[in-house]
Amino acid sequence: MHTCDQLNAQFALAGSLTFSEVTPGLPVAQITTPMATASVAVQGAQVLSWQPAGTAPVVWTSRVAVHQPGKGVRGGAPVCWPWFGAQSDGRPAHGFVRTRLWQVRSTSRTADGSVLLVLGMTDDEQTRALWPHAFDLELQVLVGQTLTMSLITRNTGAEAFVITQGLHTYFQVGDITQTRVLGLENTRYLDKVTGGEAVQSGAVSFVGEMDRIYVDTTADTVIDDVANDRQIRIAKAGSASTVVWNPWSEKEKGFADMAAGEYRDMLCVETTNAGPDVVSVPAGGSHTLTALVSVSV
Ligand code: TA6
Predict the structure, then answer these.
(1) Dist. CA 44–CA 114, nearest whole Å
(2) Which of 121, 147, 156, 292 is deepest in the core (most CB within 10 A)?
C-alpha cells in the first residue's frame, strides 16, 4: 500500500488530482476539473463525492459518516462485489471489496479536461478464504461533465465463477418526498420490505421505507429531483437490474453513520446485477458493469 506522498509522487496530476488523508492510512483522491469536482477513497475504490459546476452535489455522503480502516463510508458509491446484499452465512453484506485497500493503477487527463482514475485489486489469502476464486477487479472512474464508473471483473482462474454485484450509489436530493424515479414503469420488482413482488405502476414515488430490486431492466433511470429543480440520469451497461433504496425514518435510526432526518436528503439508485440477475464469468473471461451519471438543470 502506498502512502499519500508515494501516491502523489507517482500519480498526482498538477491542478487536477492529488491524494490527501483525513484519516491516517486512508488516502482519498481529490479531483478538480473545469466541469466538476470529485473525491474517491482508495479504500473500497469508493467514489465519495461528485459535484458538477452549477448544481448541488450529486453524490451524497452522510454528514456523520466515518472513514476508518475496514469500514465503508455511508454514502458515495460503494462497490458491492462478488455478491450483492446480506448473506445468511455470516459473510459481510455486499461482499468484501468495499472495505479493502485497492491499488491505484493509473491517473490521466482526457482532451476535454476530464480525469480518469483507475484502481484495482486481486485475490489474496483473505479473499480466497471468503470466496475461493482468482480474480482481477478494476474500477475506472471518469470525472467530468458526467460521472462514469466502470467495474471490470476478470476471471484469472481455471474455472468459471458466478457473481452478483452493484455500484451502490447514494444520490443527494432536495427532498425525498418530492422526488420521483422515472424509467422503471411497468417493470417487475422484488420488494425486500414486504417480501413480495409487484409491477411498477407509473413513476416511483416515496412515502416510506423502500428497498426494491427491479428486474429485467436495462433502462436508464431518471431521478426527478424536483426540490433541486434538476434531473439526474443514470444510464448503465452490463446490468439487468436496478435497486432503489431509502431507509426512511425508522431504518435510518439503525445506522450510527446517518444523522436523524438525513433520509430526506438521499436516495440510492443502484446499478446492479442483483437478485435473479446473476453473472457467470468464464475462466479467462471478463464482465463490465457501468453506470454513467449526468445532470440536467
Ligand atoms: O441496496 C439496498 C441495501 O441492500 C439495503 O437492504 C441496506 O442494507 C443498504 O443496502 C445498505 O447496506 P449497508 O451494508 O451499506 O449498510
Answers:
(1) 22
(2) 147
Indicate which residue of 67, 94, 133, 168 is catalytic: 168
Nine-digit cell string for 253:
435510526
pTM over 0.85: yes
Is residue 16 within 8 Å of 32, Cβ to Cβ? yes
168 is catalytic: yes
Residue nearest to atom 15 of ligand 1 (CA): 74
Three-state DSSP at 128 gives helix
Ligand 1: atom nearest CA of 74 is 15
- Report the pLDDT averaged over residues 78-85: 98
pLDDT tens figures, 110-127: 999 999 999 999 999 999
Question: Per-residue pLDDT tens for 135-161?
Answer: 999 999 999 999 999 999 999 999 999
Element (H, E) at 126: helix 125-130
pLDDT tens-digit map of 12-50: 999 999 999 989 999 999 999 999 999 999 999 999 999
> Distance, CA 85 to ligand 1 centroid (Å)?
7
Q: What is residue 68's DSSP assignment? A: B
**Ligand 1 atom index nearest CA of 72:** 15
In sequence order, the β-bridge partners of residue 172 are: 266
Beta-carbon contacts of 49 under 8 Å, excluding residues fewer than 6 positions away, are 37, 38, 39, 57, 59, 61, 76
Q: How many residues does the chain have?
A: 297
| Radius of gyration (C-alpha) of the chain in whole angstroms | 18
